[in-house]
């Protein structure tokens, strides 16, 4: 592996800083759960299923601050924008903080 590839790889994974990697991982997991809930809702998943209920509860908790920020006439837009905004913010902020810590 060339030195450039190693340096480039470290820059995107938080370098050698385990705290930066942990922050990026937490942001990724939060965004994944929210996006998974959006997909389950759009696919009309069985709300009685325990996995669907867990994902819904986690997404509600993570996106509670953004869900009613905007109102739309269509339910699907409310879900996609309301939850999607939280997922994007978690990714941007989490990776920005991780990148900043990795450069220290």
H/E order of the elements? HHHH
Terminal residue distance: 24 Å
Number of strands: 0
The best one-word shape is elongated
The rounded Rg comes to: 17 Å
Task: Work out the helix count.
Answer: 4
Description:
- The chain has 104 residues and is mostly helical.
- The chain has helices spanning 3-12, 18-42, 50-62, 75-102.
- The longest helix has 28 residues, at 75-102.
List keywords for this structure.
104 residues; mainly alpha; 4 helices; 0% strand
Secondary structure layout:
Blueprint: H1 3-12, H2 18-42, H3 50-62, H4 75-102
Helix pairs in contact: 2-3, 2-4
Brief characterization of the structure:
The chain is mainly α and 104 residues long. 73% of the residues lie in helices and 0% in strands.
